[in-house]
Amino acid sequence: PAASAQQPKTFDFKAYMAEKASAVNAALDAAVPMTYPEKLHEAMRYSLLAGGKRVRPMLCLAAASLVGCDDDEIPIASACATEMIHTMSLIHDDLPCMDDDDLRRGVPTNHRVYGEDVAILAGDALLALAFHHVADATPANRVPASRTLRAVVELSRCVGTEGLVAGQVVDLEMTGNEKVGIEKLEYIHLHKTAALLEAAVVMGAIVGGGTDAQVEKLRKYARCVGLLFQVVDDILDVTKSSEELGKTAGKDLATDKTTYPKLLGLDKSKEFAEELNADAKLQLADFDPDKAAPLIFLSNYIAYRQN
Amino acid sequence: TSTSTPSFDLRVYWAELITQIDAQLSKSTPIQYPESINESMRYSLLCPGAKRAPPVMCIATACDLLGATQEAAYPTACALEMVHAASLVHDDLPCMDAAPLRRGRPTNHSVFGTEIALLAGDALFPHAFRHIASKTPYDLVSEETILRVITEIARAVGSKGMATGQLLDLGHNTGVTDVMEVLERKFGEMAECSAVCGGLLGGAEGEVLECLRRYGRVVGVLYQVVDDILMEEGDNGEKMRSNASVVGAYGMERALEIMEELRVKAKTEINVLSHRFGAQRVLALDSFVDFAVGRDD
After folding, report:
1. Cβ separation B41–A152 shorter than 8 A
2. A80 CB contacts (<8 Å, ≥6 apart)?
3. pLDDT value of residue A57
4. Which among B41, B95, B130 has the least Cβ separation from residue A117?
5. Chain A contact probe: residue of B147, B155, B193 with most A CBs at under 10 A
6. pTM, 2 dp
7. Mean pLDDT split into 10-residue runs, chain B, 297 residues
8. C-beta of residue B165 within 8 angstroms of C-beta of residue B189
């Protein structure tokens, strides 16, 4: 109620998404040129430019603009870095020794095309490039080194053993385990999914010049949205087909994975998603509603997406 | 064989540094939830008998050559070992070099499984960057310099450096690949990066930095060429680090010539540095070269 009242009616979210996605795609394309050795760069580009929704980069750009940064050139390196890390984690997650997936974003997975060894190296190279990009491509004449360095720290914290990797490890340990409770499930998703969304939002707010208070508000927003993302993912896995999703549907059930629908039931899961969406938008209450529009719409988009 | 100069004993210098580096590395990676990943990272990071060549070269450059304090150099020195360990863990994986042993004990994936080993490598890279950014004293090293150090390491381990070295070493050469190029990418990069990071921390710029870059690269390759030669002479069965072998590609006679060429190149850079900073300050870096050629381990 309070949150939905905030929603500005004049904002064209579709046009915003299209514009930002094309800017991000162009920046990613430029960040990984087809140079020697072509096989490695081709493998990196294959997954990086496979047409994801660019949710993380968009969150990063939107957070920067919310704290008053009106030029995407400032947060674009951070935005690209989050997509590089996201892509890297997908490549490694899909490997035979991990989830063993053949299909991703509607096309064969990286290792199916380039082989496992190249897929691992392409992931490693994207991981390194993400840090290189933030440290080297954030405009030094417009962002103080102290802020860029803080962005690097956020990125490293969110993807390491206190973030993304921690989520993946606990997820691995829990697969096939009947006794996973809601707390453990939340731990997995806060780390496996929310941490990188948090990095995206917080890095945008930091390089965009936000105050500490603004950064922390946005951190809370990102954590809600991150959990929301996963709850919706779990719901979609049981309600949609592989064709609609562009990846293997029903996989969670097939692998006996603990999910929100399994723990809470489908209806309660949907209610939980609504709560998280409202909670996320509540964090934006102190900001100018017009400027907050992209983040409000992004939260709604994640809540109501169909794939 | 004697590897020491009258005024400098690399073995003593090295042994003292290793003790400190090992202590710092252990502190940098505590065992916390989820334990399995931290144990796996520690297993490779704290491998007994590791030479710690990247951190030692970083400290020799930053502190001995350029006079930086050890507190300024240690976080980066440790981070270099972290990314080094990360690459080794991934290189050893079943779908890469499929190595069962590393330095005489089971490889990471043999102990912790492939999934955890893969993730341990994935975690060690960001762990390194975080370590530099959060542990380097900002009053001793400027934030601009720290960003340059991070940029340098990220370049060295990425698609323009070691990732390409491993790709070429696995035989994925798209064109004609020279064995020397494999060695430069797979081994030269890490040493180059270590010397350059030390240089940055010590405030080096311009020609000095370029000199350190060339020196590091040559020394990294030199160690590997000597390894190839030693492996051919004795049968050091447990060392399976590179599929590319200079001896295999060019024969022993040419390999020995290449070793000598590399030694001379390294000494040339040492002379440049010696003119600029004085003979005393280059002793540590100089002894790296003599040690490479004179060692028999």
Report:
1. no
2. A24, A27, A28, A31, A57, A130, A133, A137
3. 98
4. B95
5. B147
6. 0.94
7. 59 92 97 96 94 96 98 98 97 93 94 97 98 97 98 96 89 70 91 98 98 98 92 60 80 94 97 97 93 72
8. yes
Backbone angles phi, psi at B107, to 5 degrees: -70, 165
Question: Which pLDDT score is estimated for B75?
Answer: 98
Q: Is the dihedral of CA B144, B147, B152, B155 positive or negative?
A: negative
Show residues of chain A in contact with B172, CB under 8 Å. 37, 39-40, 117-118
Q: Which among B4, B55, B15, B17 has a CA at the least distance from the CA of B286?
A: B4
**Cβ B246 vs Cβ B255: under 8 Å:** yes
Both tokens assigned to B238: 């447990």
Using CA coordinates, name the residue in chain A closest to B123: A160
Most B-contacting residue of A124, A147, A174 (CB-CB within 10 A), to test interface = A124
Prior bond of A37 cis (ω within 30°): yes
Tokens (6 digits) for A95: 């490997």
All residues of chain B having their beta carbon less than 8 Å from the beta carbon of residue A190 are none
Q: What is the DSSP letter of B280?
A: G
Across the interface, of B129, B150, B159, the residue whose CB is closest to A41 is B159
Give DSSP secondary structure letters for A186-207.
Answer: HHHHIIIIIHHHHHHHHHHHHH
What is the SS3 assignment for B275? helix
CB-CB neighbors (< 8 A) of B143 in chain A: 144-146, 148-149
Tokens linked to B13: 């210098």
Q: Is A193 on the interface with B (CB under 8 A)?
A: no
Picking from B37, B94, B144, the nearest residue to A161 by CB comes out as B37
- In this prediction, residue A5 carries a pLDDT of 46
Give residue limits of the domains in chain A.
10-304
Helices (H), B29-102: 35-45, 53-59, 70-92
CA dist B134 and B132 (Å) reads 6
Task: Check if the beta carbon of residue B62 is closer than 8 Å to that of residue B202.
Answer: yes
Between A116, A149, A153, which is nearest B95 by CB? A116
Question: Taking chain A (307 residues) in consecutive chunks of 10 residues, what is each chunk's mean pLDDT?
Answer: 54 94 97 94 97 93 97 98 97 93 91 97 98 98 98 96 95 80 92 96 98 98 96 89 70 76 93 97 94 95 87
Say yes or no for a CB contact (<8 Å) between A173 and B36: yes
Question: A172-186 in b/e burial notation, b at 16+ Cβ within 10 A?
Answer: bbbeeeeebeeebbe
d(CA B111, CA B169): 25
CATH number for the domain running over A10-304: 1.10.600.10
As a whole number of angstroms, the distance between CA B183 and CA B246 comes to 9
One-letter amino acid for residue A222 of the chain:
A
